[in-house]
Design a protein that fits this description.
Number of helices: 2
Oligomer: single chain
Order of helices and strands: HEEEHEE
Low-confidence stretches: 1-7
Helix content: 10-25%
Largest sheet: 5 strands, antiparallel
Distance between the termini: 19 Å
Structural class: alpha+beta
Length: 115
C-alpha cells in the first residue's frame, strides 16, 4: 500500500503513519497473524488507511528461532526490520506474556517507515 504522504521527510512520513495507526478504531486494526516465541511476539496488523504493520515485543530471552522469525519479517518487509521502525518503547519489567523475561522493547514497524 502506498500512502499519500507527499514528498515529506522520513520524520514527517513516520509521524503521519503513527497518527493514522493511532486513529484506528472499532474493528481496526485487525490481527492478521501472531507468532509467539520464547522471547518474542510478532503481531501483523492491518488497517484500511495504513495497510499492514507489525507490533513486535522483543525481550532479553530471545532464542535462535526467535531471531529467525525476525529475519523472516525482514524478508517480508524487503529491508531489515530495524530500518522500518515507527516507534520504540522500552520496559524494564518482565513481560507477562513471555515468562522468564526481565525487560522488553515494543516496536511498531511499517514497510513505508524509515528509521
Amino acid at each position: 500500500m502506498n500512502l499519500s504522504l507527499g514528498d515529506s521527510t522520513s520524520t514527517d512520513r513516520n509521524a503521519k503513519l503513527v497518527g493514522k495507526i493511532e486513529q484506528l478504531t472499532g474493528v481496526e486494526p485487525r490481527t492478521l497473524r501472531q507468532i509467539t516465541g520464547t522471547g518474542l511476539i510478532i503481531s501483523k496488523q492491518h488497517g484500511a488507511e495504513v495497510g499492514a504493520f507489525w507490533y513486535l515485543v522483543i525481550t532479553d530471552i530471545m532464542s535462535d528461532n526467535d531471531r529467525l522469525e525476525l529475519e523472516d519479517l525482514s524478508a517480508e518487509l524487503g529491508a531489515p526490520w530495524q530500518s522500518r521502525v515507527l516507534e520504540a518503547e522500552y520496559s524494564a519489567r518482565p513481560n507477562p506474556q513471555l515468562p522468564g523475561s526481565t525487560q522488553s522493547f515494543l516496536y511498531t514497524v511499517h514497510a513505508e517507515a524509515r528509521s
